[in-house]
Design a protein that fits this description.
The protein is mostly helical and 138 residues long. It has a domain at 45-134: Up-down Bundle (Single alpha-helices involved in coiled-coils or other helix-helix interfaces), CATH 1.20.5. The protein has four helices and no strands. Helix 2 runs antiparallel to helix 3 (78-106), helix 2 runs parallel beside helix 4 and helix 3 runs antiparallel to helix 4.
Length: 138
């Protein structure tokens, strides 16, 4: 094989490799900016729906626990009643916060720190109230 044929083969091979690389690059290229933005929006919407569902669950759970606490409050006296009233106030405050954040989600105004704060506050209020109710003594 002479050097002229070898040079041609190398040139053709190089061109073929460049074309193949270009085609592979086009086929495997990341999505367009519009598609990427849509994916981000979809992921954000999904996260908000999940947060909203979680907050609704917390709200319902707090309502149930508050109903139980209200029943116990009817027979509670003294310091036990004071502690129960404080815990119920905290739970009601958490419920209000959850309701506000749910409203913000529906209107597209909720931010991640608000969600986290509401979930944390509702979770802690429920936990404290449930613990107290389990150990309740007049």
């Amino acid at each position: 094989m002479n050097s002229k044929n070898a040079g041609r083969k190398i040139a053709v091979g190089t061109i073929f490799a460049l074309v193949a690389g270009y085609v592979v690059g086009i086929l495997t290229a990341p999505k367009s900016g519009k598609e990427t933005r849509q994916d981000i929006k979809n992921a954000s919407d999904k996260a908000m729906r999940e947060a909203e569902a979680k907050l609704k669950d917390f709200y319902a759970e707090l309502s149930k626990v508050l109903d139980q606490a209200t029943d116990k409050a009817k027979i509670a006296t003294g310091k036990g009643r004071e502690k129960l009233d404080d815990l119920m106030a905290d739970a009601r405050e958490a419920q209000i916060k959850v309701k506000e954040v749910l409203s913000a989600i529906r209107h597209g105004d909720a931010e991640d720190p608000d969600l986290r704060s509401a979930i944390k506050q509702a979770s802690q209020a429920k936990k404290d109230l449930v613990y107290y109710l389990k150990n309740f003594k007049k």
